[in-house]
Every structure is written in structure tokens, then in C-alpha cells.
UniProtKB/TrEMBL annotation:
One of its GO terms (molecular function) is glycosyltransferase activity. It comes from the Eukaryota. The keyword Acyltransferase does not apply. The chain crosses the membrane at residues 37-57. It is found in: Golgi apparatus membrane. It is a single-pass type II membrane protein. One of its GO terms (biological process) is glucuronoxylan biosynthetic process. Keywords: Glycosyltransferase, Golgi apparatus, Membrane, Signal-anchor, Transferase, Transmembrane, Transmembrane helix. One of its GO terms (cellular component) is Golgi membrane. Residues 100-399 form the Exostosin GT47 domain. Belongs to the glycosyltransferase 47 family. InterPro entries: Exostosin, Exostosin_GT47. This is Exostosin GT47 domain-containing protein.
């Protein structure tokens, strides 16, 4: 019990005890003044003692650095929770000098290209939903948005192609993406002169799917189909990226993170114990095929996830689950290391969830290119394990836990890192949309208006 809970009862009982002893001895009339004075001194002393004890025992608790104890590590959850709340309450920040009056025009397309898809609530919350989030953030970015296309540097085309969910498995299907995008461009060219004057050179699209601008979930099919010819001149905001030559990134592009709802992160951290230990050393929940050969004949995750399951399913250090669980983010808050192996594509939403919830991402995807590398120092907040080294995963993570884990976690818990990977309806300084605008500003050589402006 705290001193505050004991203060009143103890003070009352102690006073009663003193009073009874005095009565037992008998009080002489000539000493009554002395005893009154003595009683007052005792009351004052006890009161001072308990007040002092209260403030000493209830001083703020200093959060200690993370420390290893088997597989349990302490987490300053309060720091994570408060930083997310602080971020969510930040006011919208006006166009800074660094963007030098960057102006973006947003096309007002018929509702069948975007708004109608929102009738399904999943459209704005699933892993490909950055196409919705970016549109919303730009609509609210008054200092970057222009309603006069003649003063625009860049043109944003808001088409939601990822909200067509399969009736068979519930996953997003993008078989209609090419035709929907082509139809939108036809509408634009019919009603505006700006596409034709640059052949789409200063126009922006979002391709938040497995293989980005190739608009297909299977790599071989994506490569065979290639990037649609009508998009080859434009700027693509896409989640797919590798650090080697690949046909699906052979277009002007900005690498963006997959969408994770900042509200879901906030709610998860609210429920997380503020001083709890991370009792799971290594965590993964997701598709891990026992027989990884898909019906299409291809091996899912290049067999990496299957190998993880076979080698570590009985290892007490590893918490591996193959089935879906809507509250799995709570498991991330309990974990020290979160595995982020490739799926069909190299990237994974677990990259963002792990960072946002304070779990060290363990990236297993050879050649992956990660978003916003100038703002997020990935080498300082994550681990990279080669696909061929999966068999040594336990040994590698044990070594990190015994050496530099505290340093990695300290870097990971920087609020600026989390902010850079999350999209907000109202853009905030340093968030994902802010990072996109920073990247777009570097592409202003594509602005038709600026290229025609008279030199100073």
C-alpha cells in the first residue's frame, strides 16, 4: 500500500493511542497546559512525518534502460504511448521554406474512381490503403494544395485501385487496375489540357501493391506485364522497391511505407502495460506454408517462412503463429524481435507495425529497398538477416540480445522514426506524407510550370 493510503488511518489511530495513555496516567489540573502542548507537538510531528514520507515514496519513477533477463526485456511503454499521443495532437504545420511554395493540384474525378470504393470500410484501413491516406492528407494540406491548375507544379490523380476485394479469399484484387487508371487518364485528357502538354511527366499516381507500378501480385506475371505504357512518364508512389535493377521500378518513383492505421497503433499502446516486460523474444504471426508451393506453382516467400516454421516451431524463444488474430498488435508490444520475412513481395506491413510498437524489426528479404532512408536510419533500428541464413536466426538474435540490443532499442524508440512511417488525415511535420512531399520537391525539374518560368 502507498503512504497516501495509510496516512489518515495511522494518524487517527496514533492520536487515539496517545490520548488513552494520558488518560490512563491521570491528568493533574496543574499539568493540563503542558499535556495540551505535548499533544499538539505529537500531532504536528506525525503529520510532518507522513507528509514527508508521501512525497518521497510517490516521486516519479525513472524509466530504466532496457535490460536483458532471459527473454524478458523492460520496455518504456509510457514513452511510446506519450510520443504517439503527442504526435496525434500536433497541429497542422504550414508550408515551410524548405518546400519553397511547392503546389499540387488534385484532380476532381468522378466518384467511381475513388469515393464510391469507400463504401467498404476496409478500403481505407487495409495494407494497400496508402492510396486513400495520401489523397486525404493532400486534400487537407491547404498550403500545398492549389485549386488553380495553372499554378501547379505537380498533379495528383486520385484513383483507388486496391479496394476491389475478392469474394473468394477477401484479399484485394487489382485485375481491374490498368483499365481503371487508363479510364481516369482518358477523363483527364478530355477535360484538362495538362496531361497532354507534358505526356503525364508532372503527374503523380499511387501504386501501393506487391509489385507497385506493374500492378500484379505475382512477380513473374508482374514482370511479363510490365509497367503500363501510359504511366511510363509519370511519378509513381509505390511500396515496392529493391536495390537492384527490376522492371517494376523502371519508372520515376518514390518509395513509400505500407499503410498502418495510426489510430490502431494508439489504441494498442493505450492497452499495453506501461511498465510491462517484453516476455516474447522472437515473434511472427502470418502465413507460413507447411507445403509452400502455391496453386500457381510458385514457392511462397521463397520458402523462407516455411523454413522458419520447420526450424523454430518448437523453440521456446520463438512465438510463431500461422493463423490470423485481430489483436495481434498486442503480441508485438510484448515482443523483443519481430520477424519481417518476405511474402510474395519483399516488403511487409510488419516493418511499420514493428517500428511503431517498439519491436526490433528483423528483415529477411534479400535486396529490399526501404522507404524514407534519409529520415529513418534503418541500419540503426533494425536487423537484416540474409534469406540463406535463416537456419542461424536463433544464434544471431541471441548474440544481438547479449551485445547491442539496448542501443538499437534506444534508436527505435525515437518518436521521429515512428512518425515518418505513419500517414495522418491531416499531415504533420515529419510524417509519411511529409516525407513524400520532401521527395517530390526534389523532382521539381519535372514541373512544366517551372520549366517555362522566366529565369531570374
Amino acid at each position: 500500500m502507498m503512504a497516501s493510503e495509510l496516512q489518515k488511518p495511522i494518524k487517527k489511530n496514533r492520536g487515539f493511542y496517545v490520548k488513552m495513555r494520558i488518560l490512563h496516567k491521570g491528568r493533574q489540573p496543574e499539568k493540563s497546559l503542558f499535556f495540551r502542548y505535548y499533544q499538539w507537538i505529537l500531532w504536528f510531528s506525525f503529520t510532518l512525518y507522513f507528509l514527508t514520507s508521501f512525497f518521497i515514496t510517490n516521486k516519479p519513477i525513472t524509466l530504466s534502460k532496457p535490460r536483458a533477463s532471459g527473454s524478458k526485456l523492460s520496455l518504456p511503454s509510457r514513452v511510446l504511448f506519450e510520443s504517439v499521443n503527442k504526435t496525434s495532437q500536433q497541429p497542422y504545420l504550414k508550408n515551410p521554406a524548405m518546400f519553397k511554395d511547392l503546389k499540387i493540384f488534385i484532380y476532381e474525378l468522378p466518384s467511381e474512381y475513388n469515393e464510391n470504393w469507400l463504401s467498404n470500410k476496409r478500403c481505407s484501413n487495409h495494407l494497400f490503403a496508402s492510396e486513400v491516406a495520401i489523397h486525404r492528407a493532400l486534400l487537407n494540406a491547404d498550403d500545398f494544395r492549389t485549386f488553380d491548375p495553372n499554378e501547379a507544379d505537380l498533379f495528383f490523380v486520385p484513383v483507388y485501385v486496391s479496394c476491389n476485394f475478392s469474394t473468394v479469399n477477401g484479399f484485394p484484387t487489382i485485375v481491374h487496375a490498368r483499365s481503371l487508371l487508363f479510364s481516369a487518364i482518358q477523363f483527364i485528357t478530355k477535360n484538362y489540357p495538362f496531361w497532354n502538354r507534358s505526356q503525364g511527366f508532372d503527374h503523380i499516381f499511387v501504386a501501393s501493391h506487391d509489385y507497385g507500378a506493374c500492378f500484379h501480385a505475382m512477380e513473374d506475371r508482374a514482370i511479363d506485364n510490365g509497367i503500363p505504357e501510359f504511366l511510363m512518364n509519370s511519378i509513381l508512389l509505390q511500396t515496392f522497391g529493391v536495390n537492384y535493377k527490376h522492371p517494376c521500378q523502371d519508372v520515376e518513383n518514390v518509395l513509400i511505407p505500407p499503410y498502418i492505421s495510426p489510430e490502431s497503433i494508439r489504441k494498442t499502446l493505450e492497452k499495453a502495460p506501461l511498465t510491462g516486460n517484453r516476455d516474447i523474444m522472437v515473434f511472427f504471426r502470418g502465413k507460413m506454408e507447411v507445403h509452400p508451393k502455391n496453386v500457381s506453382g510458385k514457392f511462397y516467400s521463397k520458402r523462407v517462412r516455411t523454413e522458419i516454421w520447420r526450424r523454430y516451431k518448437g523453440d521456446r524463444r520463438f512465438y510463431l503463429q500461422r493463423h490470423r488474430f485481430t489483436g495481434y498488435q498486442s503480441e508485438i508490444t510484448r515482443s523483443v524481435f519481430c520477424l519481417c520475412p518476405l511474402g510474395w513481395a519483399p516488403w511487409s506491413p510488419r516493418l511499420v507495425e514493428s517500428v511503431a510498437l517498439g519491436c526490433v524489426p528483423v528483415i529477411i528479404a534479400d535486396g529490399i529497398r526501404l522507404p524514407f532512408s534519409s529520415a529513418v536510419k534503418w541500419s540503426e533500428i533494425s536487423l537484416t538477416v540474409a534469406e540463406r541464413e535463416v537456419g542461424k536466426l536463433g544464434q544471431i538474435l541471441e548474440h544481438v540480445a547479449a551485445t547491442n540490443l539496448s542501443t538499437i532499442q534506444k534508436n527505435l524508440w525515437d518518436p521521429a522514426v515512428r512518425r515518418a512511417l505513419l500517414f495522418n488525415d491531416h499531415m504533420q511535420r515529419g510524417d509519411a506524407t511529409w516525407q513524400i512531399l520532401t521527395s517530390l520537391y526534389k523532382k521539381l525539374n519535372r514541373s512544366y510550370r517551372r520549366s517555362r518560368a522566366p529565369s531570374q
